[in-house]
Amino acid sequence: MQIRKKKRGQLIVLSGPSGVGKSTVIAELLSQRRDIYFSVSFTTRRPRTGEADGVNYNFVDRMEFERMITDGELLEHAEYVGNYYGTSLKIIQEKLEAGIDVLLDIEVRGAAEVHEKCPEAVLIFIIPPSFEELSRRLHRRNTDSEDVIAGRLRKAREEYRQIPGYDYLVVNDKVSEAALEIISILCAEDCRTKNRIHLVDGI
Amino acid sequence: MQIRKKKRGQLIVLSGPSGVGKSTVIAELLSQRRDIYFSVSFTTRRPRTGEADGVNYNFVDRMEFERMITDGELLEHAEYVGNYYGTSLKIIQEKLEAGIDVLLDIEVRGAAEVHEKCPEAVLIFIIPPSFEELSRRLHRRNTDSEDVIAGRLRKAREEYRQIPGYDYLVVNDKVSEAALEIISILCAEDCRTKNRIHLVDGI
Question: How far is A69 from A77, CA to CA, in rounded Å?
Fold first, then answer.
């Protein structure tokens, strides 16, 4: 419908601690909102078994990544355990200008960088129902040693300190409910007066 | 569920021009969100045929209304075509403190007064898809003369000037969609970090 058409897409940033179930929530969200463009990050880390280029990440070498930094092609980037991770500015701008909502899955430092550069971005942080539950989920994955899990929980506590900088807080107790809350947030953001004032024809 | 429990109810203010179909949208909203308390206004105007005391309005006489003003019992009030209209502060406070969301259907001046006294209130303005459509809806109701309709449209244009003071703008094209948007807005407001920060246990 013409009258509902948005002028510009919405930039959505999703963060949350390792083990919270973010990928599952994102998959559920994207299955219900197929119009959202999920931004695939660039990284210099090697693909793990089962990971595909362009799906999980865009895998590039260090020289190419550093060229992207130099040429200002990245909206945000960070170095993490010796590898670069970053988000392409160009692709995102194209989508937003075409009126398409763009979803980024990035950690707290990258989110802060995006927020600084795009103050209109919507920042959502996903937490587990409790810290014990996060620990249970990390153990249940059965992929990490106790030391690694302890490290992830320590990191989660650090990340939690950045929560006040996020607009919304979603508790991932049930995946379907968490996805529904995010869908509601995106709908509400579309309804914000500043995003719809062009629909008012009587002034 | 304990973890989702809100500390305090949300105050929701709904405004919109005469003829936009606000009552129908509210009825649909309340049928889906039975936990919301719809605040019935007090008025000194006489009940119209079919109107019931305590349902459409709480009908009181002028002396009682003025006593309520003097005793500070009203959150907002206005005089309109010789009659008083107002919202009870006490009932609303009780509901909000009990964690119940409260919905007010009030016009733009009253909404501004509520916003001043309760800055945390969520203000939603409902518009028709177009001004011509508003005119068509007012004619279709078949209750008003051409003069009265012209007056309502003039008033709508005045009310539209206050839209930038509202948080959200909902277009009532289809009632079910407008109600769904309001439900999404209320869900999103519940998800705001400031309303949920008490759920974070790891900091």
Answer: 8
d(CA B189, CA B143): 37
- For residue B203, the chain A residues in CB contact (below 8 A) are 157, 160-161, 163
Mean pLDDT by 10 residues, chain B (203 residues): 65 94 94 95 91 92 96 91 90 94 93 93 96 91 85 91 96 96 97 92 64
Does the CB of A202 have a partner CB in chain B at under 8 Å?
yes
Express each pLDDT in A86-113 by its tens digit.
999 999 999 999 999 999 999 899 999 9
Strand positions, DSSP E, A60-167: 74-80, 83-88, 102-105, 122-127
ipTM of the complex: 0.89
Return the H-helix or E-strand segment holding B125.
Answer: strand B122-127
The kind and range of the H/E element at B59 are strand B58-59
Are A203 and B168 a contacting pair at CB < 8 A?
Answer: no
The helix-helix angle for A22-32 and A175-191 (nearest 10°) equals 60
Dist CA B184 CA A162 (whole Å): 25
Whole-prediction pTM: 0.90
Question: Is some CB atom of chain B closer than 8 A to the CB atom of A37?
Answer: no
Asked if B184 lies within 8 A of A187 by C-beta distance, the reply is: yes
End-to-end CA distance of chain A: give it in Å, rounded. Answer: 22
Query: A33, A167, A201: which to substitute to probe chain B, counting the most B Cβ within 10 Å?
Result: A201
**A122: contact with B, CB 8 A cutoff:** no
